[in-house]
UniProtKB/TrEMBL annotation:
Protein's cellular compartments: Cell membrane
Membrane topology: Multi-pass membrane protein
Gene Ontology CC terms, in alphabetical order: plasma membrane
BP GO annotations: signal transduction
Pfam families per record: 7tm_6
MF terms (GO), sorted A to Z: odorant binding; olfactory receptor activity
Primary localization class, coarse: membrane
Parts of the chain that traverse the membrane: 35-53, 73-92, 129-149, 178-195, 248-269, 281-301
Entry keyword set: Cell membrane, Membrane, Olfaction, Receptor, Sensory transduction, Transducer, Transmembrane, Transmembrane helix
Protein name stated in the entry: 7tm 6 domain containing protein
InterPro entries in alphabetical order: 7tm6_olfct_rcpt
Amino acid sequence: MEYFDWKLTIRINILMLKSVGLWPKGNEIYKPNLYMLYAIISVVIIMGGHNFFQLMNIFFVYNDLEALAESMFITATDSLISVKLCFFILNIRTLKELMMSLNSVIFQPKSVQQVELVWPRLNIWKKTYVIYWILVGTTVCVWAIFPFLSNSVKDYRLPFSAWYPYDTKISPFYEITYFYQVLGMSFRTVAALNMDTMIAALMMYTATQCDILCDDLKNLQKDFSEIFKGRVKHHQEIVRFAKNTNKFFNMILLGQFFTSITVIAFTMFQLTLVAPLSGASLSHMSYISAIIVQIFLYCWFGNEIEIQ
């Protein structure tokens, strides 16, 4: 039986995380090198700075309910992303260890039939990844070009409400700030989407290992005692993998559900303030759809483990 590379399924996921400074090379963690410098610039300056200026804006608009709601429904999500980034980076060692254990011998399919058995789950993850990308990507693209669509770019409107210590309605500060906002949101989108799908992938891998173990137990034949001991060890490794996975994302998941409820509430309020079927309303609906799919990721793949 040829070696089955589990990470091959999520190679795009890993590549995207690497592109925003969240995946050190190979099985390594962060070390003092050029990639770590890039990660600091990406996480602190590009992504963190974008969120900081959005948060500061709240202190200037908190007396205006409509402006506050407009600012909050994006800022709440961005603040959660910042928290997720912190937990992701702090637990990168655990994640890398999970990836290494996943490619260990005990987790390998033992026949072509078992490879075929796990492919449906791998394909579900791939399709979910694509759908999630389409929804989130569409929403972010609309936000990025909305000042052009609404012709408010002539009034120096930025894609996102934020406070800056300079006048953004003066060229070239407006153009520079516009680019910074789009860049910051693009980085945060890539980071958030791929952190979510990475967690979903870990749950998917747990379920596939349960499938393999069940198939092994159904086909116990000769040398029952020795083979059964191997299956018990496999089960223990699956439990350990699941516990470490839960340890990796439990706080992230808590924040995700709390923030998602808040964001949906703010976005629904925003929908009451715009004309039906307008560009803004369609943007809000797309955003709500992306949030629902985000929650769906955790619920669906978590439920698959419960079923097993």
